[in-house]
Amino acid sequence: MSNSICICGSEKFDIVIEGNYSYFPVNGKIVTFQALKCLSCGLVMTNPAPVEVDKDSEVKIHEDDYINYLEESAYRINQLKPYLNDSTKILEIGCYTGKLVEMAAQLGVKESIGIELLSKAAAYGRSLGRDIRDMLLDECNFPSNYFDIIQAHHVLEHIPNLQETLDEISRVLKPNGIFYVTVPRYNSVFVRSANWAGWYPQEHFWHFTEKTLIELLAKHELEISKFCCPIHHATKKDKFYGVKRMMKWGVKNLNMGDTLEAFFYKKS
Question: Which neighbouring-strand residues pair with 164?
Answer without folding.
Answer: none
